[in-house]
Amino acid sequence: MRQIVLDTETTGLSWEKGNRIVEIGCVELVERRPTGRTWQRYLDPECDFEPGAQEVTGLTREFLAGKPKFADVAEDFLAFVDGAELVIHNAAFDLGFLDAEFARLGRGHRPLRELCAVEDSLELARQRYPGQRNSLDALCKRLGVDNSHRQLHGALLDAQLLAEAYLALTAGQGEIGFDAVAAGGGANAAAMAVPVAAGPRPRVLVTAAEREAHEARLAVLRKKAGGAAVWDRPVDEAAAEPALAVA
User: How do residues 21-30 score in pLDDT, each as one tens digit?
Assistant: First the structure.
């Protein structure tokens, strides 16, 4: 499965009031692994920032002057996201701005939700952490994603952080075929019940970056457990422990 983690930066909070996109950032995942492919553009919004919006991104009209307009990059953007599932934090916001930009072109573009599947990571976070703050910064802190270098909002930087947070948030959901069962219903569920032929299991090689991410996640769990976790104890001692409820 190919996914594009997407973020935008804008001149204000409302496309209905004429605010425009000033940056688009995309990160590609294939089978839940970053491929290294990204797509990022700064855009000339052809309008001023609303009060306070400029301070969020650090971008200025002077910096954006001479950058391409949305019309100049629209087809290249569509080619990059074509056929992918879009992963967006608060999807209604970004899709509203993108659809408004396409509408201004007057070329009969369909809404992006009709061209791509969309996964709203904010809704996923709210389901997993009801009643808690689920901003990107809050998710990064909760899931052990280092965002210490995020001094200002930037579409590509935020898409990269969201990709890490999304993978941590959804870890395990599609690893053993549950996605196929959910998507296909009873027939796929029956297929999943068929025993797999015996044979050597594939060997999974872990990269240094994956090992570091794993250790960071374990560190977060150890902190929640008061500094140590069951798996840090000798096997005999851990086996004797009663089952623990996980908050």
Answer: 999 999 999 9
Residue 246 lies in a domain: no
Instruction: Read off the CATH number of the domain in which 43 is found.
Output: 3.30.420.10
Residue 64: which of 13, 19, 23 has the closest Cα? 23
CA 41, CA 24: separation in Å to the nearest integer?
A: 6
> What's the number of domains the chain is made of?
2
Task: Average the pLDDT over each of 102-111, 130-139, 229-238 and give the range with the smallest value.
Answer: 229-238
Among 169, 189, 216, where does a domain finish?
A: 169
Q: Catalytic residue among 89, 109, 149, 153, which?
A: 153
Residue 205 CB-density burial (10 A; 0-12 exposed, 13-18 middle, 19+ buried): exposed
d(CA 49, CA 112): 25
CB 6 within 8 A of CB 26: yes
* Rounded Cα–Cα distance for residues 2 and 193 (Å): 26
CA distance 219 to 222: 5
For residues 153 and 43, membership in a common domain is answered with yes
Which structural domain range is residue 235 located in?
Answer: 206-241
pTM, entire model: 0.69
37 lies in the same domain as 127: yes
Is residue 89 annotated as part of the catalytic site, yes or no?
no
Domain limit, last residue, from 114, 148, 169:
169
CA torsion angle 124 7 58 136 (round to 10) = 10
Sequence letter at residue 16: E
